[in-house]
Amino acid sequence: MLAPQPMKASDHPAIRRLSESLGRHAEPELWGTEECQVVIKNPAGELLGWALAHWWEPADPVAPAGYYLAGIEVARRHRQRGVARSLTEARLAWIAQRASTAWCVVNAQNAASLALHRTLGFEEVARAPQLGTVVFSGGSGVLLSKEVVFSRGKAQGQD
After folding, report:
1. HSE-up of residue 55 (Cα within 13 Å, Cβ side)
2. pLDDT for 74-99, tens place per residue?
3. Does residue 156 sit within a domain?
4. Overall domain count for the chain
5. Which label site among 26, 50, 123, 149 has the fewest CB atoms less than 10 Å from its CB?
6. Considering the domain boundaries, does residue 140 fall inside one?
7. DSSP E strand boundaries for 35-99
8. pLDDT digits (tens, 9 = 90+) for 62-75
9. What residues pair up with 127 in beta bridges, in sequence order?
10. Which domain holds residue 31?
């Protein structure tokens, strides 16, 4: 599998195109500089997927402040090939350099994302129609967490 690499400003147009192809509206030029921002490209430089992780304080009685896997998009024709897993593992390593717990909010209807997170050791904490500022239309959201090995050096997730 191709390795994730840091996102660059030159990746922004491809990220916007990928997002639009999925019916979404990512605006990478608005993302902060204190985030984990990674991409995976094929050898020809084509963007296969991107992902974020960051500190989030949702001001929510259920979802605590912490480091969250924040966003991920993978081109349709490259799904089920390990791209999302590689992007998620890179974000978990980044979080493990900062905290002992990684958090994630997933739409309860997103079976593929829930399955991926479970294989990576995430456990369900709660379900709600809204978690922080994220409102789940037509369903509920799932708050997931995973303990990671906190290390200022090389980080690894606990399984």
Report:
1. 7
2. 999 998 899 999 999 999 999 999 99
3. no
4. 1
5. 123
6. yes
7. 36-41, 47-56, 66-74
8. 999 999 999 999 99
9. 142
10. 5-150
The answer to whether the beta carbons of residues 89 and 125 sit under 8 Å apart is no
- Report strand pairing: 101-107 vs 141-149: antiparallel
Indicate whether 72 belongs to any domain. yes
CA 150 – CA 97 distance, rounded (Å)? 6
132 token code pair: 């922080």
Strand pairing category for 134-135 and 130-131:
antiparallel
Locate tokens 């390593």: which residue? 93
pLDDT digits (tens, 9 = 90+) for 20-73: 999 999 999 989 888 999 999 999 999 999 999 999 999 899 999 999 999 999
Please state, in angstroms and rounded to a whole number, the distance separating the CA atoms of residues 7 and 51.
9
- Entry pTM: 0.90
